[in-house]
Amino acid sequence: MRVTRLATVLVLVAPLVGCSVSGPQPGDTANAFLAAFAKGDLAAAAGETDSPDTAKSQMAAVREALEPKSVRTKVEEVNQAEGASTANVSYTVTWDLGPGRTWTYENHIELRESDEQWQVHWSPTVIHPRLARQQAIAVQGQQPELAPVLDRDGNLVLAPSRVISVLLEKEKAGNVRAVAGALATALGRFDRTITQASILDGVNKTPAGQPYQVAALRQTDYDVVKPAIYDLPGVRFTSAPRLLANDKAFAPTLLPGIRKVVEADLTGKAGWRVITTDPAGAEVEELHAKAAEPAKAARTTLSVGVQNAAQAAVDAEPAPSMIVAMQPSTGELLAVAQNPVADKEGPVALMGRYPPGSTFKIVTAAAALAGGKVTGATPVGCPPTITVEGREIPNSGKFDKGTIPLSSAFAFSCNTTFAQLATQMGPSELTETAKRFGLGVDFVMPGATTVTGSVPPASNVVERAEDGFGQGKVVASPFGMALLVSTVATGTMPTPKLLDDATTEADSTVEPVSPQVLAGVRAMMREMVAITPALAAFPDLRGKTGTAQFGDGTHAHGWFVGYRGDLAFAVLLTGAEVSSKAVAAAARFLSGLS
Predict the structure, then answer these.
(1) Are 314 and 300 in contact, with CB atoms under 8 Å apart?
(2) b/e map 250-262, b = 16+ CB within 10 Å
(3) In 10 A of CB 391, how many CB atoms?
(4) Is 490 buried (19+), middle (13-18) or exposed (0-12) by CB count in 10 A?
(5) d(Cα 162, Cα 160) in Å, to the nearest integer?
(6) Which residues pair with 117 in a beta bridge?
(7) Residue 173 and residue 162: Cα distance in Å, rounded?
(8) pTM for the full model?
(9) What local confidence, expressed as pLDDT, does residue 6 receive?
(10) Burial class, 25, CB count within 10 angstroms (exposed 0-12 / middle 13-18 / buried 19+)
(11) SS3 299
(12) Backbone phi and psi for residue 64, each to the nearest 5 degrees, phi listed first
């Protein structure tokens, strides 16, 4: 037996060198066939076989099915018995089927001599050893399931689900009004904004020839209404995987932003298979498979437990109400809760601009302590009113505490005291102090857009006096106030974060607050909690109430901000008129955590 070993990649035919045998050889034919096949010259490849028409047709069908970017072939060995008119050639073929898809296998070709010419004996096995007659080859993609989004403790926040889109094609609907009415009746239970009128309006605004998406339904919701809508004329359906909230009531204004950031990274790597199929298209056998690789779950810094406690604390409030909670040691957001009324206004807990009222006295107190002229024990006046350049500034209800320590003026929330302190400061003193606590710092935080607040310099002494107790031109968001009390808790403004694997960028770096100032502010916040009966169950809490007038000054928001251990939070009940309602919400929130 004569054995010839070849190690030539057959893109070009490599002639046998140093062979003493004259005349056509089986290796030459194998080389010619495989080189032509690799190049896609199927006519030339088929011409090297004993069944050119059949060979060309089957090779074309396989290449069409696989759509290779390139094909490489390599003869490994030629086996021929001495004087025999048959030979066997082993070879390796590598199909490049696109990014990440490479398929390599070994195969054999039988060659036969006829009229002193060698030809490839054609059979489907020439292409693949397990490809039989009347069979085809097909490639199937395998998409991995979307990875979920988890909270900080591993609880599901966003789960992969199948979403069914309900589409209406006006041209095929016939009586569009009747179809829209039927869809509205079936789908209105999931979304009250879906009405016959809204559907007709949407259809009429959709360009001709394009379908109008009436709704996107979870699979479970679709199954409920399918009998009522499946056979409606002009209605068709598409489905796709999507990340949906595991709990529909969980942070509805926050999760879309998280989904937008992480969804592309949760698709994983697609798998693929090469199979043989019978004439009916049914799968016969798997020839090659690369399993799909699911992505790693994304993690948000939110806590399901903290979020649910915050949500329960504000859900029943009649006006827009919200709580933002943060871990001071890391800046990680634990909860962003809004009641349904607030949800209609957008992510106001993160971006709303509200007068902070007396909660801003934390900043004014810090600025006064940093100036070195007062301490928490310094006696200060808390008269019912003061007048600053003709502007009367009263305490709430014009209460009078006489002369008391500054810490007590803070606890009783004497507007007159803190307005007077602010008049003794420079135009930018409150601005600079507030920034050390995070108010006025802008962040680019993946997953959500945030606004901390604004404390503009005040050259006018009246404006500065009003700023001193959180009125004037000072505004802050609940997010900004949660950042502020986080800074009180730790001494250094933390960088807020919403997603584990994302980095938040700040537009500026701020100096930490001095330990002496922090000690003074913390003592004031402790005293404020101590004189508030509704907070008696939380002796380790540090906080500040705030009533903030808005509009024409006849109505007020209610605030409470505070921290307890490694939890800082801000509560805002808009239009509550008094801070006691915000204190009650804070107590409900803290009680819900235990």
Answers:
(1) no
(2) bbebbbebbbebb
(3) 13
(4) buried
(5) 7
(6) 114
(7) 26
(8) 0.79
(9) 42
(10) buried
(11) strand
(12) -65, -40
Type of residue found at 374: V
Closest CA to 570 of 241, 356, 393, 323: 323
Distance CA 336, CA 350 (A): 8
Q: Could you tell me the pLDDT band of residue 215, with boundaries at 50, 70 and 90? A: very high
Confidence bin at 4 (pLDDT 50/70/90): very low
CA separation for the pair 452, 461 (Å, rounded): 24
Tell me the Ramachandran region of residue 37: left when phi exceeds 0, alpha when psi lies from -120 to 50, beta otherwise: alpha
Q: Tens digit of pLDDT for each residue in 484-494?
A: 999 999 999 99
Residue in the structure block whose two tokens are 């730790």: 490
Residue 237 DSSP one-character state: E
Q: 593 is written with which tokens?
A: 């955590």
148-200 confidence digits (pLDDT tens): 999 999 999 999 988 999 999 999 999 999 999 999 999 999 988 999 999 99
Strand-by-strand arrangement of the 86-96 sheet: 2-5, 70-80, 86-96, 102-114, 117-120
Is 17's pLDDT higher than 60? no
Dihedral sign, Cα of residue 532, residue 538, residue 540, residue 545: negative
Can you read off the two tokens belonging to residue 160?
């992969």
CA 438, CA 492: separation in Å to the nearest integer?
Answer: 9
Q: For tokens 């070709």, what's the residue? A: 109
* Angstrom distance (rounded) from CA 519 to CA 521: 6
pLDDT at 5 over 70: no
Matching residue, tokens 């808390």: 382
> What's the start-to-end Cα distance of the chain, in Å?
85
Sole residue written with tokens 């010419």: 117
- Count of alpha carbons within 13 angstroms of residue 366, beta-carbon side: 28
Report the C-alpha gap between 343 and 504 in whole angstroms.
24
Q: Where does 291-366 show beta strands of DSSP type E? A: 298-299, 321-327, 332-338
> Is the backbone of residue 438 left (phi > 0), alpha (psi -120 to 50) or beta?
left
350: helix, strand or coil: helix
Quick one: tokens of 309?
Answer: 């406690």
**What is the rounded distance in angstroms from the CA atom of residue 63 to the CA atom of residue 377?**
88
What value, to the nearest 5°, has the Cα angle with vertex 76 and ends 72 and 82?
Answer: 140
Backbone angles phi, psi at 138, to 5 degrees: -140, 150
Alpha-carbon radius of gyration of the chain: 37
Please say whether the beta carbons of 122 and 51 come within 8 A. yes
pLDDT value of position 22 = 61
DSSP 257: H
